[in-house]
Amino acid sequence: MLPKADAMLVEPMSCTTLNKWGAGIADTVAIGIPSEAVHMGVPVVAMPYFNQAQGAQPAVARSIAVLRDQGVLVLDGPDGYESELWESQGRHE
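^ thats the sequence. predicted structure below, dont judge the formating
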């Protein structure tokens, strides 16, 4: 078992990672550790980074909402890593 982190950053977070995490699928260490940490009181910050076509999937907005409901600070839109994804419609702010 690893020692408890003071905080955790998941970056860059792919569309696949975002949607797996949002669906509760923790089948890799990269998803499993932060998905457990957020429920152990560790502040977790996630910064999605993928293209506009991937970001247009309805699952993206749902997954961001799920992670935020769990206490994850998701940095997207103007507050996060701006990419072509956030220039589309501003849907994920």
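Residues 56 and 89 are 9 Å apart (CA to CA).
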